[in-house]
Design brief:
Layout lengths: L33 H19 L4 E2 L2 E2 L1 E4 L4 E4 L2 E3 L4 H22 L2 H6 L1 H18 L2 H9 L4 H26 L1 H8 L7 H21 L2 H6 L1 H4 L1 H4 L6 E4 L1 H4 L21 H4 L20 H12 L7 E4 L1 H4 L9 H22 L4 E7 L6 E2 L5 E11 L5 E8 L5 E3 L5 E3 L4 E10 L8 E9 L5 E9 L8
Helix pairs in contact: 1-4, 2-16, 4-6, 6-7, 6-8
The structure holds iron/sulfur cluster (SF4) (2 copies).
Length: 465
């Protein structure tokens, strides 16, 4: 609601705000057409994929699992462990560069076709809203009327959907089987996951009932970056003003010099972010193509060629020749190829276990009652294989040294990481310049074998500097 004494803005500041500052609810009119049909199929395919990803398995693992407590990330059968920081960084950078590349070529294709906000809003929540409340006019009417039973029913449906989405979201972090098990138990047994589901449900519900298109217009950081990611040759949804102007209503006596735009405002009425594409490329445009379908229908009805609003580029709209290849596209491609090659080589070269040898906590060494010098070591083993394995470790070389390990072999279950402490003792006389170079051999019953070099610390021999 607008403040009583607030002066009206001179022009529209935001498509979701009236000039007096009150909310302007966007109730887009559906625009059936060729892009709508393609987007409908694509959107529902994505919805299925999103819901099936935590359920379906590859190599016995979910297609995607972000195990936060274990700090593990499973993606299409490959698990990244906390020791894979470099690989994860590569993957993350590859995703970023991939986004830069896609945006430079196809503009906001992600926003209009694949973003969950658009997909769920335009192909689940809005159709449900229309089914319950009626078309655009009826919805606008309901906006000015008081509480309504159908609107109440809509909120109930939206809440159930939000609850379902929140559970699917949680399944990405805890796995589908754990989620199903927890659902049958009291929330008090799993308060944290329960709070996450509740919080997410509330956020999703508020997003799709109240915040809606403002997520794209105000909140989404990707939308804000468009001005630097796009260039004049990027694909956009654009209005051809050379063809459309001067606009004139379709009526008797229409000037023969008038452009193809008949001022029907179908493109504006169908826009989910409430803008007029005829005013040029705007940050609010999510390239959803609804205005293309709306205008094409008008063009067909009035006997004009389709494409007054179309997929184009800023360069093409000004009559210049537009080509796909340009330096930034080539550079992004080269970076991506380099990153994916490194990622593929690193993954292929990964052994079935990661082993780290660490110095013990506290004093670097201690002298035992029998005069031997003792060093504590810590051995960390991450089992990357799909089965439980036993890792045996031993010293290579000198017979003067003795390894004392309470957990040898160390048993590590599949995908798990274990840390064990051990001691290595050596006679005082074995130390040269306060050190002994040793080699620790680690192996399991299969092909895995690793030799790690290490320096034991001890006293300097009497007489040495
Ligand atoms: S739908 Fe096409 S003809 Fe109608 S106002 Fe928009 S651009 Fe003009
Ligand atoms: S201007 Fe057209 S493409 Fe852009 S958001 Fe509106 S309807 Fe979608």
């Amino acid at each position: 609601m607008a403040s009583l004494n607030a002066p009206e803005a001179r022009e529209q500041v935001l498509s979701t705000l009236n000039r007096d500052g009150s909310r302007r609810w966007i109730r887009p009119k559906p625009a059936p057409g060729r892009f709508h049909r393609r987007r409908l199929i694509f959107a529902w395919s994505l919805i299925f994929i999103f819901n099936l990803m935590p359920i379906l398995k590859l190599n016995g693992k979910p297609l995607m699992l972000l195990d936060v407590p274990k700090r593990e990330f499973t993606f299409f059968g490959t698990t990244f462990l906390p020791t894979d920081t470099f690989l994860l960084m590569l993957l993350l950078f590859s995703i970023f560069v991939g986004i830069f590349l896609v945006t430079a070529i196809w503009g906001r294709v992600w926003c209009g076709w694949a973003c969950p906000q658009t997909v769920y809003m335009e192909y689940l929540f809005r159709p449900l809203e229309r089914w319950l409340e009626g078309g655009r006019q009826r919805q606008l009417q309901l906006d000015t009327e008081g509480p309504d039973l159908r609107r109440g029913l809509k909120y109930l449906f939206f809440f159930v959907l939000a609850l379902f989405l929140a559970n699917t979201f949680l399944a990405y972090f805890v796995g589908w089987s754990s989620l199903l098990e927890w659902m049958t138990q009291s929330p008090a047994r799993h308060p944290m996951p329960f709070a996450v589901v509740l919080g997410t449900t509330l956020l999703v519900f508020l997003d799709f009932t109240w915040f809606r298109e403002q997520t794209c217009i105000i909140a989404c950081p990707y939308g804000r970056f468009q001005s630097v990611l796009l260039d004049r040759r990027s694909l956009i949804v654009g209005y051809d003003e050379h063809r459309g102007e001067p606009r004139a209503k379709q009526r008797k006596g229409r000037s023969p010099d008038a452009g193809d735009c008949i001022e029907c405002l179908r493109c504006v009425d169908t826009c989910p972010t409430g803008i007029d594409i005829r005013a040029g490329l705007q940050m609010e445009c999510i390239a959803c193509t609804q205005c293309i379908d709306a205008c094409d229908t008008v063009m067909e009805r009035t006997g004009r060629p389709r494409g007054l609003i179309r997929y184009t580029s800023q360069q093409e709209l000004t009559g210049e020749k537009s080509s796909f290849l340009r330096p930034r596209v080539v550079i992004y491609c080269l970076i991506l190829v380099a990153m994916f090659s490194t990622l593929a080589f690193s993954l292929a070269g990964k052994s079935s276990a990661d082993v780290t040898l660490l110095r013990g906590l506290g004093a670097p060494f201690s002298e035992l009652q029998n005069g031997q010098i003792s060093n504590q070591i810590r051995l960390k083993i991450a089992n990357r294989s799909d089965e439980t394995r036993s890792y045996h470790f031993s010293l290579e070389g000198s017979s003067d040294l003795q390894l004392i390990a309470p957990e040898n072999p160390l048993v590590v279950s599949a995908g798990d990481t274990q840390l064990t402490a051990a001691f290595i003792t050596a006679p005082r006389t074995a130390f040269r310049d306060g050190e002994i170079a040793i080699s620790l051999h680690i192996s399991d019953a299969t092909e895995f074998e690793r030799v790690l070099s290490y320096r034991l610390l001890g006293p300097h021999r009497a007489g040495s500097p």
